[in-house]
């Protein structure tokens, strides 16, 4: 399983939102939602910030 935590880009709305969702998922112990957010964040970074 890929447990990387991609870094959100400062000042980017979608990055901030996904990072916040991931932090909330982590806070409630929802590892699968946390992983989903990391996947979505990494995909967004690749598409929007590459
Ligand atoms: Zn972004």
Descriptive account of the structure:
This protein is an all-alpha fold and about 50 residues long. The protein has one domain. Helices cover about 65% and strands about 0% of the residues. The protein is built from two helices and no strands. The protein has helices spanning about 15-25, 30-50. The longest helix has 18 residues, at about 30-50. The chain is globular. The termini are far apart. Bound molecules: zinc ion.
In short:
Helices cover 66% and strands 0% of the residues. It has helices at 13-27, 31-48.
Give me some keywords for this one.
50 residues; mainly alpha; 66% helix; globular; binds zinc ion
Name the poorly predicted regions.
none
Determine the oligomeric state from the structure. single chain
The largest pleated sheet is described as:
none
Please identify the structural class as seen in this structure. Answer: mainly alpha
Radius of gyration: 10 Å
Summarize the helix and strand pattern as letters: HH
Mean pLDDT: 92
The number of helical runs is 2
Count up the domains. Answer: 1
Strand content: under 5%
Total beta-strand segments: 0
Shape annotation: globular
Give the terminus-to-terminus CA distance: 23 Å
């Amino acid at each position: 399983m890929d447990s990387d935590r991609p870094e959100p880009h400062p000042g980017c709305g979608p990055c901030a939102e996904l990072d916040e969702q991931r932090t909330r998922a982590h806070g409630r112990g929802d590892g699968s939602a946390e992983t989903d957010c990391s996947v979505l964040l990494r995909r967004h970074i690749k598409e929007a910030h590459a």
